[in-house]
TrEMBL record:
TM ranges: 20-40
Keyword Glycoprotein among record annotations: no
Organism: Snuella lapsa
Protein name per Swiss-Prot or TrEMBL: DUF6340 family protein
One Pfam family it belongs to: DUF6340
Length: 349
């Protein structure tokens, strides 16, 4: 920019000062506005991977992954070939059932029933057995007073310690011409399971799932820990039944930090209560403001109460207060929040 004289210079700086002042004022207003808002993060539910038909609440579970005692020859040969301890799968497969049982305990409306006779015989290998006939399924469900039958159809385990050691030695010989003296320090134990969930009412398979699950362990005296297989099998059971449970992801909920007019100090006290996780106390404080129709902070208080109830897991109450925030006070956050809560309630009920 070319400036001819001092008056132009003065005028130029006056203009620039005004622009700077206006910019600073806008920035201050923006910061003040942002200072009126806060937020909280909480878990938002997702639909389960498997949504079961209505009416299925009690599920009886059976272990069909074993063979009859007199027909063990094939199983022992397979155990030797894969590096298993012969008979280890017999005990570990029951751990999968235990994991499934614990995985649903007090976590949903679903309930696992363990029958008096837990085991029925199948192939005892990874070979898939035929489906159970529906008369037998209905009989088992009736005896256990269950709505569906969950069957562990196959179960097999192995570890990679032998394969890993051989692969390391072969690689070392090919690369350096001599074996590797370093021994493996960790082992991976994996279990392979196949599950079927029989619905006797519709005579259909509500879920069938081929599962591979593994865990890594540190070697103890060059051997896997004694409980490595059982831990892996138990965790596999937990992992499978998680298919029937809702998932969660973190979401952000906007709130008001500041009130208006005569209730500013009281509003602030409610916000400070949330900062120390005293949500019920904050609700009582904000309720006093929200019920005063003459308060300039009533809509903000109603919105905050809605968020507080969602934090406490009371979705219906949260929805009522969010709707009130918009319906009675025209709070736009309340309108958008109501739609979000309606979606959440549809997931939960």
């Amino acid at each position: 920019m070319f400036i001819e004289n001092k008056s132009q210079v003065t005028k130029y700086y006056e203009i620039m000062n005004k622009i700077y002042f206006l910019f600073s004022l806008l920035l201050m207003l923006s910061l003040a506005s942002c200072g009126s808002y806060g937020y909280v993060r909480l878990d938002y539910p997702q639909k389960p991977m498997v949504v079961l038909p209505e009416g299925i609440n009690n599920i009886v579970v059976l272990n069909r992954s074993l063979t009859k005692e007199e027909d063990k020859r094939g199983e022992v040969l397979e155990s030797i070939a894969t590096g298993e301890i012969a008979g280890s799968d017999k005990l570990a497969s029951d751990e999968v059932i235990k994991g499934a049982f614990d995985g649903l305990q007090n976590k949903s409306h679903l309930n696992i029933v363990i029958p008096d006779t837990l085991r029925i015989y199948g192939t005892g290998t990874r070979q898939m057995p035929d489906k159970l006939n529906w008369e037998r399924v209905a009989s088992i469900c009736n005896s256990a007073q269950a709505d569906a039958l969950l069957v562990l159809e196959t179960f097999d385990s192995n570890s990679n310690i032998l394969r890993s050691a051989i692969a390391d030695q072969v690689s070392s010989v090919m690369t350096t011409g001599k074996p590797n003296l370093r021994l493996p320090s960790r082992v991976r134990v994996d279990v392979k399971s196949y599950w079927r969930l029989y619905d006797p009412v519709t005579k259909s398979i509500s879920d069938h799932f081929q599962q591979t699950y593994y865990m890594d362990f540190d070697l103890v005296n060059d051997l896997p820990p004694v409980n490595a297989l059982h831990e892996t099998a138990y965790a596999a059971g937990l992992d499978y039944v998680s298919r029937f449970l809702p998932g969660y992801y973190r979401v952000k909920r906007d709130m008001y930090k500041k009130g208006k007019g005569k209730d500013k100090r009281l509003f602030d006290r409610g916000w400070r209560s949330t900062e120390v996780a005293r949500w019920k106390e904050a609700i009582e404080i904000w309720r006093e403001i929200a019920e005063d129709t003459n308060s300039k902070s009533a809509g903000r208080a109603a919105l905050n109460i809605a968020v507080a109830y969602e934090v406490l897991g009371e979705t219906n109450l949260a929805l009522q207060w969010a709707q009130q925030a918009y319906r009675d006070y025209g709070d736009k956050l309340g309108r958008d929040y109501s739609k979000t809560l309606l979606r959440r309630r549809n997931l939960e009920f």
